[in-house]
């Protein structure tokens, strides 16, 4: 199972694009409800997201539109709403069909206003279910001020269900009447009730991603050889996943070598190297890669790869 999840990751998006931009605005936390868990691990009767969720047949109203908004905000790096909205039509035109831009502009402006209102809310106290519930309900009320029910379901429905799961798991973890086995069973039932099969698979893939990264960090820290890395990965994830991870290591080494060559070149040579060393897609990410790279610790082991190839 672990090997299959790792192969799915290697075939997917996260190794291609890496993490979201560090300056991207925080995604809105969706509404949920904290529910008590019955003794014996029974599923809470109210383990459903509270009243934001509605059918959303409109194909434009889906979470991908929020990702487009976040991408446009990150690219613009505007200092205020007015400046960003002046840039927004061109930014959206790069990401959406022309006939959808006008409508997306209206949704985008409301999204920005909602984000500003969300940021004014006090954060929940760490580990306090009652405080989390209060914050979740306050955010739900803010969302309802800016979006209709069908818009909330389409744009934020996945987050609503994810937050419902988070709240339920916190309540389950704090239920002193449950044994460890009952907690695990109740958490699994909550996940099955609140998440779609696709979302459950995404969670498994994310867990596999974290496991792979932790193992890679440990091998980097001790300067593991390519042979040692392949052997450990084969044991954990299977031969094919280990082979693909080894290929990724090689790509990253090549990427970092080119970054070194570019960063260490005299300024009057960098324009030429930018064209000769990087393809069009890599050039779009070059500035961000160099900034991220400079913020990371200096590598201390031969296997360390401080940058990730975007190709």
Automatic annotation (TrEMBL):
One GO term describing the cellular component: plasma membrane
Coiled coil: none
GO terms (BP aspect): lipid catabolic process; protein folding
Topology with respect to the bilayer: Single-pass membrane protein
Keyword terms of this UniProt record: Cell inner membrane, Cell membrane, Chaperone, Lipid degradation, Lipid metabolism, Membrane, Transmembrane, Transmembrane helix
Subcellular location: Cell inner membrane
Gene Ontology molecular function: unfolded protein binding
Family: Belongs to the lipase chaperone family.
Protein's name in the database: Lipase helper protein
Record organism: Variovorax paradoxus (strain EPS)
């Amino acid at each position: 199972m672990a090997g299959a999840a790792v192969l799915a990751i290697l075939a997917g998006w996260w190794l291609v694009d890496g993490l979201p931009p560090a300056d991207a605005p925080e995604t809105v936390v969706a509404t949920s409800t904290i529910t008590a868990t019955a003794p014996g691990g029974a599923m809470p009767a109210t383990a459903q997201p509270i009243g934001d969720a509605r059918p959303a047949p409109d194909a434009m109203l889906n979470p991908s539109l929020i990702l487009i908004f976040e991408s446009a905000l990150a690219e613009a790096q505007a200092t205020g709403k007015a400046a960003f909205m002046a840039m927004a039509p061109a930014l959206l035109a790069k990401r959406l069909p022309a006939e959808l831009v006008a409508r997306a502009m209206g949704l985008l402006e409301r999204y920005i206003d909602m984000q500003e209102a969300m940021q004014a809310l006090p954060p929940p106290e760490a580990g306090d279910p009652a405080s989390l519930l209060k914050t979740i309900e306050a955010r739900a009320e803010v969302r309802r001020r800016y979006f209709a029910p069908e818009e909330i379901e389409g744009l934020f429905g996945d987050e609503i269900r994810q937050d419902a799961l988070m709240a339920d798991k916190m309540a389950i973890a704090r239920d002193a009447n449950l044994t460890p086995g009952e907690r695990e069973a109740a958490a699994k039932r909550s996940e099955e009730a609140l998440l779609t099969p696709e979302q459950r698979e995404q969670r498994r893939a994310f867990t596999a991603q974290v496991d792979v990264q932790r193992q890679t960090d440990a091998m980097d820290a001790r300067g593991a050889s390519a042979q040692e890395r392949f052997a450990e990965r084969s044991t954990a994830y299977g031969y094919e996943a280990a082979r693909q991870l080894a290929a990724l290591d090689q790509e990253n080494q090549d990427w970092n070598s080119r970054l070194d060559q570019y960063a260490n070149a005299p300024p009057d040579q960098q324009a030429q190297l930018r064209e000769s060393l990087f393809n069009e897609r890599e050039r779009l990410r070059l500035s961000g890669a160099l900034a991220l790279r400079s913020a990371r610790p200096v590598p201390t082991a031969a296997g360390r790869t401080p940058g990730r190839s975007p190709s």
